[in-house]
Every structure is written in structure tokens, then in C-alpha cells.
């Protein structure tokens, strides 16, 4: 293959089978001569992202978004944003709005050369209805009056052929009349259905006269009450692709068995003059299977409806809105998508891959801050009463010189908060933090020596005492005179921001919570959320909703988009600094 393809575009290296297919089509010019009805040349690569607006998108959809929009971008094409809104009973405008917002947030656009390519299957209902009529006239579709149970019984099994419907050979004129009556609302739901006439003995169950139109007396979010009949997804989807001149129709492996019907339908309709060749072609890839999550819309809705989570955007949910609120970035999700690639084989990806992508994205760009999550009072007995001394620390780590050298400032005072685990009255072997007689450095501050502790009536430590060495302040000449092994973070008790912090973990403790028919609710992790009051360095009072920080030692935290208020941010832990799951 030449380095430069026929459209003059040099693509990214082939990293998966889909890129190989596209590059081969570009070399051969499979879609090179297509044009609009107005004669304008079409891109050789046109993909689409076709969600049904019946729920919130999840991480699996994010993989599909990155794949479809990314391939179009990399091969000088365009990707259509299309809603497959053929089921009026489950679809709502709320879902349309959140899907559009999620795609934009992930960094993609359905605009190409200044023109938006936002489409709805419902806008094609007239064409779909005409296509169904054409199939009836051609003897390739008929109105069936069997009920759902009879159709199931007559469909056959994987080893036994199906049985023809008693209505299979009814005259085309009669099927046309009944189909029009279905459209006009003259028959109740479930009383009739339009089926394609293919082969009831086919080894592919999907070719045994599949249903293509059903009666639904329901108001549609886009077309209102215009229609009483609605196309089935498997009928509508290929027609939508052809109408939009899609070249590479990319879907997940569960649709592989539907591809013969996809090809059959488009071939029949092209013969009737509906579409010109070359026709779209469907390709299947393995869906994203991440451990420790579920992606079933029904089960996700159950979590919301039963108030097991706080909503679709609960930071423990695998929805895009939930991941966003948790603190995941578009860059991290795109990185994970790129790394997992596209394959023809189903496999499981450990959730740590997604977490690792987030750490890698945030490490060079997340401002640093200090937070004490499990507070214990530290009193510097020889520190001047009422005095505060300014300390400073870099906003970004020195390992990333691309950032400026900005510093943040915070005071050290007589009383501080430290982490409870940073003091042991009787230290274990290898413990280098605070214990009576030991010296440690207060990070960005002074070296102190522990002198003892206070306890309550139950023997619990409630405060630790120490003395500081005035000539040991970090950044001064005298600091080099002190060699200590412990280095503790802290915040001034007087100046600290006391605020709510939510420590999130995986929602399920089982890596495959709903596999094999298991009750996924039994796998809920009781420690998936812990709400604490933490003490943060005072600079964080100005944190804005959605702003992400690395809390030194603890991980990456985001100011909650919903519950943060001016001067009082609420923080969600997005991910720990290291993968500690199960350790």
C-alpha cells in the first residue's frame, strides 16, 4: 500500500482490522466516485454513531464514539450523529440532550466542512414506509396476523426449520391494504405485523421472515402522533445508513448475525431504485467489556430506580455523566479507547486500564494540593502563640517543566492537622513517621520532634505534641542540616478548609457481577462510597466545579459539578495514586 492514499490523505498507522479495511477501500477507491444528489463529492469514509435515545450513554458507548468519530477524523471523512429513535415507548428528549452533550464532552463533533450532520431515524419514516410497500409489491413482505406466541412457536430452532405462517402467501394487494390500515390506526397493537419474506428454513434465524414493522399507538418524541406503525431497528438501520451514504457501518459483534439481512435488504431496495451502489457495508467489532461494571441499560436503570445509586450521574456509575462527575477526563477515556483497540474477539479489559489512563492523563496537568482525610491534631508546643509563617509549594511537580513555576502559599501555625496513620505511640519496625522521640519533616515546613500525645478517657489518641526546629524550614540554608526519614503532609488547623470529601470505589466487588445469570445486586461493594469531612489547604476554597487536583499522597480529586458552591467545594475522589484494588 502506498503511503499516500487516493484522497491524498496519509492516515495513522494500521492498529486494528478496521483501519486495514478502510485503507484497503481507499486504495481501491471503493467509495471514491460517490456524490450527493446535487453533484457534490462525498468523503470516501463516512461513519456514524447511532444510539437509541432510551437511556444514558455508558463507557461502552464511549468506546464506540471514539472509534467511529476517530476513524472518520483520521481518514479525512465525517461521522454522523444519528438517533435510532424507532421505539416511541422508551425514548425521551432528555436522553437525546444528554447523548449530544456526552459526545461533545468527549471532544467530537458531527460538523464537517461547516455543515452539521445530526440525523434522526424518525425523519426517514416516510422513506422507510415506502420501502416496506415496495417489498410487499415485490412479493418480499407480507402482513402476518399471528400473535407473538404463535410466531415464536413457528420460528423453529437452531436445529429445526421454521414453519410458514398461514398468511405468508396472501396476495400483495391485500398486504398493502392491511399495511395501510395499520398505518391509519385501524388495528390494535399486536394484532398484525409486517414481515419480510425470505426463508423460514434458513440456518440463520434472523432470515426466517423477520418482523420489519409493528403497530404502536404511542406518541413519538419527534413525530408526535403522525404514525401508528414503527419500523424495527434491523429494518430501519440499514436504510438509514444508505440514505446517509455511510461507507463503513461499524457495530458490535452481537449484530454479526444480522449482517445477512442488512445486505439482503439494501440489495433488494437498490434494485427498486431506492439506493445507488456502492452500498454501505457493516463491520463488527468486540464490544468493550470492563471488569467490575455492568452496562445493561435495564440493570443500570434498576440501580437508579431502586435508589441504590443517587442517579444516572452517580460517580460510581459507568455512565459517561457518572464518569465525568467522578473526575474522569475526555482525554483519559480516549486514551483507554485507543489502547484497547478494536478486535473481532470478545475479551475482558480490567478496570485498572481505565484508571491507569486517567492517572497518566492527570499526572502532568493536575495542580497539587494538600488534604488531610483522617485528621489528628498536632500541637507544636514551642511555636509562638498566635503566629503564622508562610510556606509555599509548587502548583505542579518539578518533573513537568512545561508548566510555569507558580507556587501556592499556605500558613503553618501552632496547631495543625495531620493524618491519623502518621502517628504511632509504639511504632512497628520500619515505621519512620511520628512517634515519641522521632524527628520528621513537615512537608514544605519545619523539622519537628515528637514529645508525646494526649488521650481521651478511652485511651484513644486525640492530639500529638512536638517541638519544631526554627532553623529547619524547607528552602532555607539550615534545612540541609537535618536528615530525617519521615516527611508528613499537614494543614493549619486555624486556616484549613473543612469540607465534604467522597471517597469512591468500585460499585461491585465481583469482576463479573452479572455474568452467568448471577444476581448483580448481590455483588454490590458495601464500601463503594464513604463520606468524610476532610481538612484541605486554604487555597482550595476557590476551587471551581469540575476542577481536578492531585491531593498529595491520596489521589486525584474533582470539585463536584453538582454540589459544590462558591467557597465551599465538595470533592470526589476520581482515582487513587496507585492501583491498590484488592491489596
Automatic annotation (TrEMBL):
Keyword Cell inner membrane included in the entry's annotation: no
Q: Where does ATP bind?
A: 52-54, 58-64, 252, 287-288
Spell out the Gene3D superfamilies in the cross-references.
Glutamyl-trna Synthetase, Domain 2 (1.10.1160.10), Glutamyl-tRNA Synthetase, Domain 3 (3.90.800.10), HUPs (3.40.50.620), Ribosomal Protein L25, Chain P (2.40.240.10)
Recorded GO molecular functions are: ATP binding; glutamine-tRNA ligase activity
Motif 'KMSKS' region positions after renumbering to this chain: 294-298
Q: Which residues form the Glutamyl/glutaminyl-tRNA synthetase class Ib anti-codon binding domain?
A: 366-468
Task: Give the record's family classification.
Answer: Belongs to the class-I aminoacyl-tRNA synthetase family.
- Protein name, entry field: Glutamine--tRNA ligase
Gene from which the chain derives: glnS
